[in-house]
Design goal:
The complex is a heterodimer of chains A (132) and B (110).
Chain A (H helix, E strand, L loop, with lengths): L6 E8 L5 E2 L1 E4 L6 E8 L9 E9 L7 E11 L5 E3 L6 E8 L5 E7 L3 E7 L4 E7 L1
Chain B lengths: L1 E2 L3 E5 L8 E7 L14 E7 L7 E6 L2 E8 L10 E6 L16 E6 L2
The chains are: A mainly beta (132), B mainly beta (110).
């Protein structure tokens, strides 16, 4: 039950190889997933919070303007305020080829939904979690 | 709605091992051997993978001729083929000398 205090969501990427940070590197077809925690502004873990996981699409070239958020999955925090994408919700990137200007064209895949998005990636991909 | 920090995922490109195959073609119009003052020599390079935009240059008798071209630089944008054409006007000095020559291509900057 929300008590009126501000909620804080912290999110990390897990590359399945022991790295759980806000910035991960993955290879072709390597599974990764999002996890984190929700707490209130005084640091109390918030259990049973509905957390949505998203991929944020930006234009592939500068100035990298925001285009759209692609929904990936819904998770709920446990009694300690933690959420973790299940093995059924993992993501991975597939290398499609090179763009005419030499950058990789990648396909974002998700275990349950299959292909989510495909496009040129000049720098990296951004993911986030939200709570309401 | 409350948003989290952004988690960035960087893609590590697969290491693609590329092999290059070189073939040569000379239309001597019936003359043997070729005449470097009249004939053009076509060095046709085929890559085992997409090398679009990448350059290769011609080495003759172990000497860098400086003659190069980029994959995809052809009318149909073929990403695995490129031709290096030497004409009488850009014929490397090595190919103007009589005798047999060893020719190969090497990648430039990749």
């Amino acid at each position: 039950m929300w008590d009126g205090r501000l909620k804080i969501v912290q999110c990390f990427g897990d590359d399945g190889k022991g790295n759980v940070t806000a910035s991960i590197t993955v290879g072709n077809g390597q599974k990764f997933w999002l996890k984190g925690y929700v707490k209130n502004e005084i640091g109390t873990p918030l259990a049973n919070e509905r957390v949505e996981i998203w991929f944020d699409e930006y234009s592939p070239d500068p100035p990298y303007t925001y285009r759209k958020s692609w929904w990936l999955s819904t998770q709920y925090t446990n009694i300690d305020g933690y959420f973790d994408q299940s093995p059924y919700d993992v993501e991975w990137l597939e290398y499609v080829g090179l763009s005419s200007d030499g950058f990789p064209i990648l396909r974002l895949m998700q275990a349950k939904m299959g292909k989510i998005w495909e496009g040129k990636v000049r720098v990296n991909l951004g993911f986030k979690a939200t709570v309401t | 709605m409350v948003e989290s920090n952004v988690v960035t995922v960087t893609f590590q490109a697969p290491v693609v091992v590329v092999s290059l195959n070189l073939q040569v073609s000379i239309d001597t119009k019936g003359n043997v051997p070729y005449d470097p003052s009249k004939d053009s020599i076509w060095f046709m390079v085929t890559a085992s993978a997409d090398c679009y935009g990448k350059a290769v240059k011609l080495i003759v008798d172990g000497v860098d001729t400086g003659v190069m071209n980029n994959f995809g630089n052809n009318p149909v944008g073929d990403k695995t083929h490129v031709n290096i054409v030497v004409t009488p006007s850009n014929m490397p000095a090595q190919l103007k000398t009589q005798g047999s020559h060893t020719c190969k291509v090497v990648s430039v900057g990749w």
